[in-house]
Amino acid sequence: MKPSILNSLNTHILPRFEYFEPKSLGEALELLDKLGPEARILAGGTDLLVKMKTGALRPRYLINIKRISGLRYIRVEEGYLRIGALTTWNDLEESPETALFPALLDAVKQMGGLQIRVMATIAGNLCNASPAADSAPPLLVYDAEVVLASVKGVRVVRLEEFFTGPGRTVMRENEMLVEVKVPLRKGSSAFVKLARTSMDLAIASAAVYAEFEGDVVRDVKIALGSVAPRPLRARRAETAVRGLRIGDPSLMDALQVVKEEVSPITDVRSTAWYRREVSKVLVHDALVKSFERAGGVRA
Amino acid sequence: MRISFKLNGRHVEADVEPNELLINVLRERFGLTSVKYGCGIGECGACTVLVDGRPVLSCLTLAVDVNGREVTTVEGLDREGGLTPIQRALMEEGGIQCGYCTPGFVMVGEYLYRKNRRYSEEEIRSLIRGNLCRCTGYVNIVKAFKKALG
Lengths: 299, 150
Known about the structure:
heterodimer; A: alpha+beta; Uridine Diphospho-n-acetylenolpyruvylglucosamine Reductase, domain 2; Uridine Diphospho-n-acetylenolpyruvylglucosamine Reductase, domain 3; Enolase-like, domain 1; five-stranded antiparallel sheet; four-stranded antiparallel sheet; 14 strands; B: alpha+beta; Ubiquitin-like (UB roll); DNA polymerase, domain 1; five-stranded mixed sheet; 5 helices; 32% helix; 15% strand
């Protein structure tokens, strides 16, 4: 049965678990390796503890990584923005480096309330792997990578290959996401989110990264949230709009392909039909917004 | 697990279970009933307290997580018996109806006030979106915030 707030157990009390507070990354990875599938990593806690309260998750072991130093940073190095596992949304909001990634900054500003942004981490948002994760579409259009560590070593996975389904990723049971790497790019970008209120999860969202030549779309990357089992890179839409002009009526016609590329569901926030219809409009809006940010004026 | 932390300027200690939530420890062990239980899932902001000066939801914070940190609730705000600028503004503007959401608004307001800058109405509305008032008394709350922070 799919748990919801309506059949929640008791939000005053958290079920029991065995608690670990490693002081180093090495110690955390060893614990994770030893405790296996019944262990969960606690960082911001804004998803995990809610899932534990509602009964959606009942981990036997909790590994709190917040006492590990050196996991909370935002650095621009070797052509990448590097975001640590414990870096919060509010850290990004207050960091001048985030302005280099306007679509990400758009998402940061619209995500949750102040308290959630102060507590929640970017890494946690990705690991929770909600199709509605606000950080995912912007990071997808920047071709971000995630660094996964285990006792065996480190591997780097492209974010596009990271998500496998709702709440599911390619992470192995003994792996922890330790860093998000976002390549610096010269083009323009934007993120647009449709939700009842910005506190709410997205009905649908779209991120665009684009390079323009005059008003012609050249290199373009498109990603969507809340319209597929996982955050979606819309490659067919990218091919369809490449070479078209902003302001040209054929642009919206070309974006009809988005309707075929998405596979939305009906839930409390929206119907599948509406999500399908609105997706192409959001992509269009994000494209125009990035064009305007690039200094372009619509004809 | 034994934890020690600074609570409203005072050094305190407590024995807590790993699954105990900060809100329950503050209310039940320390009698700080300004901290309100609203939704319990991070939607309403009624349980907001400051941890190391930042606004966090005490219903989604493990008590063990404040070990060695500094926690401030409304009870710790009185300035030699006086009210804070946010509290005074909320009173003057009538930004209080049933009062249940008020402590959460006061803590967010205090955090913003301590940043020592001015905020536009648009910024204020965005920054308090994590605090719900189910009496829907937002107009006067926003007026109060503008008075103290604008």
